[in-house]
Write a structure and sequence with these properties.
Rossmann fold; 7 strands; alpha/beta; 2 domains
């Protein structure tokens, strides 16, 4: 069994790993362990956006603790600290070019040969837009949602590609959901919707996510 450690941004990403990604990867002889980013050493608090220095210190400690284990990340581009490698210098690149460049620079800076960088384009909630009908059915149970509200958002971006839903604060996937739903729980609603959508649908709609997942599956081959 191949071991894989995943540094996740917060509770939603951690839940996604434990409830969906780990069971999926077990089929490929890969066992995924997950922990949230350390935000306060003094309080031993984990989960949330941190500066790159804090992120680098935390993940580097895990490298040292588990030098023979593969490592990856599950963090959002949206809201990422501007001091992450390439964050500023890549801003004028197209989305996929930008994310690939940032991941390349992150790997170069961390200098760990078993590290597979992954930055979610643009946000965890992006994945929910893989199937907007499921979103509308689920969130419509306890929110008054206009017909095709989420479908229209998805259609507003090139090729109806969920990964291209804009990163600007007022247009980020999570902000768009909250603008439509008075009640939306990022952790609980998010994972229940994604479980109904399923890994295969998500990867078919999200190119960058699919490339990452494929690279993790290949570890067990």
């Amino acid at each position: 069994m191949i071991r894989l450690n995943i540094t996740a941004e917060g509770y939603s990403e951690e839940r996604f790993v434990t409830d969906m990604l780990r069971p999926h990867l077990l089929n490929f002889n890969v066992y995924a362990e997950v922990r949230k980013v350390l935000t306060s050493r003094k309080l031993r608090k984990r989960g949330g956006i941190v500066t790159y220095d804090k992120f680098k210190w935390d993940i580097s400690q895990w490298f040292k603790e588990c030098p023979d284990v593969y490592h990856t990340t599950l963090i959002d581009l949206y809201g990422l600290s501007a001091d992450f490698p390439g964050y500023t210098s890549s801003q004028n690149l197209m989305p996929y070019e930008r994310i690939n460049e940032m991941e390349r620079l992150l790997k170069d800076d961390l200098k760990f040969h078993k590290f597979i960088p992954y930055i979610q384009l643009h946000e965890y909630e992006t994945l929910l837009f893989s199937d907007t009908q499921v979103m509308e059915n689920w969130l419509g149970l306890y929110n008054k949602i206009g017909k095709n509200a989420f479908t229209n958002i998805k259609k507003s971006v090139p090729d109806a590609n969920p990964e291209l839903i804009n990163e600007r604060p007022e247009l980020a996937p999570s902000k768009r959901i909250l603008s439509i739903c008075d009640a939306y729980d990022k952790v609980d609603d998010g994972i229940l919707i994604l479980q109904e959508i399923g890994i295969n649908k998500i990867r078919s709609e999200c190119k960058h996510f699919n490339e990452w997942l494929t690279s993790l599956e290949s570890l067990g081959k």
